[in-house]
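README, section 4: Worked example with a bound small molecule

Sections 1 through 3 covered apo chains. Here we extend the same pipeline to holo records, where the ligand is supplied as SMILES alongside the sequence. The molecule in this example is pyridoxal-5'-phosphate. Nothing else about the input changes; the structure line simply encodes the ligand pose together with the chain.
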Amino acid sequence: MEKNEITVSIDRQHETLAIDGGRPVRTEPLPLEFPGVHHMGQQETEAALRVLRSRSLFRFYGLDLQEEVSSFESEFARWLGVSHAVAVTSGTGALSVALSAIGVGPGQEVIIPAYMWVSVAAAVVNRGAIPVLVDINETFCLDPNAVERCITPRTAGIILVHMSGVPGDVKAVQRIANQHKVFLLEDCAQCNGGSVDGQKVGTFGDIATFSFQMNKNMTSGEGGCIVTNNLRLYRRAIACHDLGYVRDEEGRLAFSDPAYCLWGEGYRLDELRAALLRMQLKKLPAIIEAMRRSKYRIRRALEMLPGVRLRRIVDPQGDTGCFLITIYRDRQTAERVNLALRAEGIVTYPQGVSNVLMTEWGLHLYYNIPSLVQKTSLDGRGFPWKLAENAGLEREYAKGICPVADSLFERSIILAIPSCLTEHDESDIVQAFEKVLRAYSL
Ligand SMILES: Cc1ncc(COP(=O)(O)O)c(C=O)c1O
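The generated complex, written as structure tokens:
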């Protein structure tokens, strides 16, 4: 047995479940999620003060410009191993800019996974294109076989979302994208720092997006980034994230190249948040290491228990560790286990969400997104669904479209793994699972 492996207390196994009036495994809530926040400190404070003292908060020029945004872009690109990065104000903005840079528009279909975040569908719809839902497998990311089956002559590209901290089967999806000559966009918002066979997510496709919102592996409260190795996509992203044009050395708008006289979307990042991100990037390996260590200590203990299955991980070395998903034989079992675990104290503070049935995981589930299911139109005239260019591309989005995802969602529980979990917290989690699963003879 490895050093520090979690062993289960024999006494606990025979205790009455807390849900039946017994003593709970723990009474103090588990720490909140927010991986980057737990590692924030003096360095972030000093970085923010440096920018405030310079009174130069705009990225392109100022009284005493610190060049935090451009430095962050270079550092982030180098860390990932890509040529170019464009920092933006959100992951949602990053998705919009990436699709604009590619040139996605009406008449095209874009493949999106059944398990994602509302922003993915929104970015496609806002460009006037039609999202095509594709099922997941036990990786909880796109099923490559299902992707292959859903490619049509109208498919422009595939958005692979690396969900809940873990990379999807990106190599298989990349092969399909190459074979069919469609773009691959990796949404790495939930998996910053993840990798497959030593290669970081965000470097496999044509373009990739990140979010630095507060729940993410590193954070500036709000923020995002687009990365690519393609110079043309980079320059188009630079133009689109700003006012529609690239800039010269002095940060002035440049109009000389018609290829980069486009339309802007207004997602420029400011110096203050970039300064925070530079500090968080330095800490990201330690943040991920902490979560991965906790998650795999828990996973190794749970692997010994019958009655529970664990999410399939393509490459455990590349897992960022921020969520643990357990799968049960049917919905009733998952519900019972979840309620009993919560009664054992496997809960977090009210401002966080953890240890919930995946059906309660909000706008991550395609059928929980009302605007998608109802095909809402911003203009009230049916955009983009009823555009002439989209004739023949009618799709449905209600529950039932992705049966594997539907079944996994109702049989699975998702638990956040905070970056400050102690060994004591980890042992409590394992003991609670053990106690509940044994009591229910699973
Ligand atoms: C997979 C995914 N994509 C995109 C986003 C959007 O990021 P943001 O909240 O920064 O707009 C999120 C945020 O939660 C996400 O989880």
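What to look for in the output: The chain has a mean pLDDT of 96. Residues 90-92, 116-117, 119-120, 161, 187, 189-190, 211, 213, 224 surround pyridoxal-5'-phosphate (CB under 6 Å).

Section 5 describes how to batch many such records.
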